[in-house]
């Protein structure tokens, strides 16, 4: 399959669906610090997030309105973006995220990759087995 004449990286979705998909992934990235997705969605997410942070860092009324309109009036995500930018991304001019390829998905063998914020430690989630073993050690 050749890649000429493709307007969008994410194919097979309407414009509103693509916009909603990117918006929800950006919000999850801000909330969790990393997100697991397909490589094509990861490229789009990285591009949109970097644009959003650069616009947010201008710190003018117009730039804040632009960023707020991206979040569709989700004030909590807007505030969290402000915290992330102030804490971890204030010293950088670009390259706020990184994409790391991982093993394919188990169910359908689709390619997967992590999109992570730079300068961020992500809390590792414990599995049920690890939680159970920790509880046994305590009690």
UniProtKB/TrEMBL annotation:
An example Gene Ontology CC term for this record: large ribosomal subunit
Protein name according to UniProt: 50S ribosomal protein L17
Top-level taxon of origin: Bacteria
Pfam family membership, one: Ribosomal_L17
Molecular functions (GO terms): structural constituent of ribosome
Keywords assigned by UniProt, alphabetized: Ribonucleoprotein, Ribosomal protein
Similarity comment text for this entry: Belongs to the bacterial ribosomal protein bL17 family.
GO biological process: translation
Species of provenance: Candidatus Dojkabacteria bacterium
Gene3D superfamilies to which the protein is assigned, alphabetical: Ribosomal protein L17
NCBIfam families from the UniProt entry: L17
């Amino acid at each position: 399959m050749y890649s000429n004449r493709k307007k969008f990286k994410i194919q097979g979705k309407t414009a509103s669906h693509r916009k909603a998909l990117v918006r929800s992934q950006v919000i999850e990235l801000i909330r969790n610090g990393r997100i697991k997705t397909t490589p094509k969605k990861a490229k789009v997410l990285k591009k949109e997030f970097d644009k959003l942070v650069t616009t947010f860092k201008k710190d003018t009324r117009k730039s804040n309105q632009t960023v707020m309109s991206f979040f569709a009036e989700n004030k909590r995500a807007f505030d969290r973006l402000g915290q992330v930018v102030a804490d971890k991304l204030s010293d950088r001019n670009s390259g706020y995220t990184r994409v790391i390829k991982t093993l394919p998905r188990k169910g359908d063998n689709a390619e997967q990759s992590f999109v992570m914020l730079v300068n961020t430690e992500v809390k590792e989630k414990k599995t049920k087995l690890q939680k159970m073993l920790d509880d046994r050690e305590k009690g």
